[in-house]
Amino acid sequence: MKVILVVCDGLGDRPVRALGGLTPLQAARADALDRIASEGECGIMDVIAPGQPPGSDTAHLAIFGYDPFACYPGRGAFEALGVGVELQPGDVAFRCNFGTVNEDGVVIDRRAGRISSEEARQLAEALKEVRIESVSGVQAIFHHSSEHRGVLVLRGERLSRHVSDVDTHKAGVRPAAPRALDNSPEAERTAKALQEFLEKAGRILAEHPLNRDRIRRGLMPANTLLPRGAGTLPRIEPITKIWGVRAAAIAGGGLYKGVAKAVGFELIHVPGANGTVNTNLRGKVEAAIRALDDYDLVFLHVKATDNVSHDKNPAKKVKVIEWISRELMPLVEKVSSEGYYLAITGDHTTPSEVGEHRGDPVPLAIMGPDVRRDDVRKFDEISCARGALCRIRGTDLMRILMNYLGRVPLFGE
Ligand code: ZN
Ligand code: ZN
Predict the structure, then answer these.
(1) Is the pLDDT reported for residue 76 higher than 90?
(2) Of the ligands numbered here, which is closest to the C-alpha atom of 346?
(3) Of the chain's two ends, which shows fewer C-beta atoms within 10 Å, N or C?
(4) φ, ψ for residue 353 (rounded to 5)?
């Protein structure tokens, strides 16, 4: 028995005035989604807890069955894994922006004039020579990821993720000096190593010919790094071991690949899967169908629904939902003909009039050969609330799916 879990990011929504008081899911013509609801059991899911707006990282931990309040290790390690950095236990990873500071050290652009990937990659190369000397046994590893973004890894003994963000998310102020967020010597060591790295990196970047050239061309030099979101690998048992399944993940966005990898999924690379509305969704669905031959649990992530929600574009969200539904139809056919299970849901609600994550529950539908089919015929926030699954928490979902696969051991005798 096999199951595929489809998560559309930020799928949940609220009634939208421009859609006549309907949610985008209610307004969409989404035959595949409605078929899953019709043939399945439906419900709504509080991904973290009722009313708690989830980040995508904590939301996915919960959906994969891990209590994020107990095991969330910060975002940095997920980002690092997602761009292909091999992390070791004890590593502390940060997401970084290349930014621009003026002569007073004040941030004038958090994205260094949206520097190109090609230029940022060259600058990242130059940062390889930074050596940490003020803290013994610590190595700094910097990787470019995309555009103005990169990942910094501090590797060594006795480091901690409890250090503050350097990036203030604001222009017009100096970056915050890294400081220990607890009184531990580990956090002190980490903050000190980070400070040294930033000073040395800043000098290398300021003198780099590529930045001098950018100044000559009237562009912002990428003369500083703005780390945030310190994180480590989560201390958890891999999902493959907990349930005894082979598990594969298909995602475009780095964060989702990172969370999936951190909990034990194998990543399947799909060319053109990029975590945007222009993603190669057809390729991802085809890869998912193939993966069902080799894996028991397949995770398919689609980011576009969240992107258009943050853009406050409900009409586009309707179109994106309709597109996703069309592209999912071959997968629904496959699952139906093989007698597999398919679950579809969101990782949080991103109301497209608000443009930010909110704590409203998300709709959920599970189809499969022997699920308790209910009366719900349409996949949306309101219809699914009347379904047989009622209202569950995000951390319940994986056990519910594994129960269908016969993978949940008996509790008691
Ligand atoms: Zn999300
Ligand atoms: Zn979002």
Answers:
(1) yes
(2) 1
(3) C
(4) -90, -20
